[in-house]
Amino acid sequence: MTLPEENPVSTQPTRRRRPSARRFRLLSVLGAALLALVMASLPTQAQAHGATMLPGSRTFLCYLDLQRNSSTQMPTNPACANAVRQSGTGPLYNWFAVLDSNGGGRTTGYIPDGTLCSGGNRGPFNFAPYNAARADWPKTHLTSGRTIELQHSNWAHHPGRFDVYITRNGWSPTQSLGWGDLERISTVTNPPQRGGAGSNGGYYYWNVNLPSRSGQHVIYVHWTRSDSQENFYSCSDVVFDGGNGEVTYGNGQTLTADEVAEAALAADAAPSAAPSTAQAEHAGHASHAQHAPAAAGTAAPAATTKEALRAGLLSLLPW
């Protein structure tokens, strides 16, 4: 009689264990989430950001006013405060984002009269209140006929053309701003820049010869990117009274040009008193253009969050 082998060796092929339906669904969900994060981190069209810093635009100077009163989240300037009551603080924490992703250099007939300061209200933030025709916006004091160095934020660097306009003689700050009110006084392509992109200390700069003017006016800057259809728009309220860059906030307080520059740098470094989704968006803009990290107390930069999530998802996947 033949005894059976103690350790018979199977000649059948080894079958691979199929994943359970639950594990398959988990991997599918994780894979989809990873793909979404990768797609979200790719560059999008609305990457450039900028507004005039000298003479300061409405959004820039109202933002500095907001930062000086961060405990209340309400600017002291009456026009700025009214705009915040209408559209919140989000537009000010993104003061550099008055944009139209499809602007393509178009002006008259595309951006409607009365909406020039908000870029036709086509951007991601509600800048419509900054079109208000009123004489008490923060204003920069200038001297008629003088040459100034115009400074325009390079929150994200891109090539393009800057067209500078000024309101005509006889224009009143209590009338809405239209294209027919403007005279172009300067055009420059790819101007030099100082400071790092993504901070209040970084900007493009070039000289502009101011025409003969008296009283209150608006200097309007239209930035046309040459690498996309995205355009940016900026309204700066000025008064020609022999000044040298001083800023009056409309509440009786006037700052020198140096004090305004110092306030801008302080706003970069100061932690926020009341973190919000608007401030998180502000920090996210800086991170996605590889700018300086957000200040302490603000939300983590969006790109850092995406990298952490992506790494965590990859560690869970079976490859």
**What characterizes the major β-sheet?**
8 strands, mixed
Helix content: 25-40%
Query: Under CATH, the topology of one domain is which?
Result: Coagulation Factor XIII, Chain A, domain 1
Spans of at least 5 consecutive residues whose pLDDT stays below 50 are 1-11, 31-48, 271-319
Shape: globular
**Architecture of one domain, CATH level 2?**
Distorted Sandwich
Q: Can you give the mean pLDDT? A: 77
Structural class: alpha+beta
* CATH homology superfamily of one domain: chitin-binding protein cbp21
> Number of helical runs?
7
Query: What would you report as the Rg, rounded to the nearest angstrom?
Result: 27 Å
Strand content: 15-25%
CATH C-level of one domain: Mainly Beta
> Separation of termini?
52 Å
Number of strands: 12
Spell the H/E element sequence. Answer: HEHHHEEEEEEEEEEEHHH
InterPro entries: Cellulose/chitin-bd_N, GlcNAc_Chitin_IntDeg, Ig_E-set, TAT_signal
Organism: Streptomyces radicis
Keywords: Signal
Pfam family, one: LPMO_10
Question: How would you summarize this macromolecular structure in one to three sentences?
Answer:
The chain is of the alpha+beta class and 319 residues long. It is 27% helix and 21% strand. It has a domain at 52-269: chitin-binding protein cbp21 (Coagulation Factor XIII, Chain A, domain 1), CATH 2.70.50.
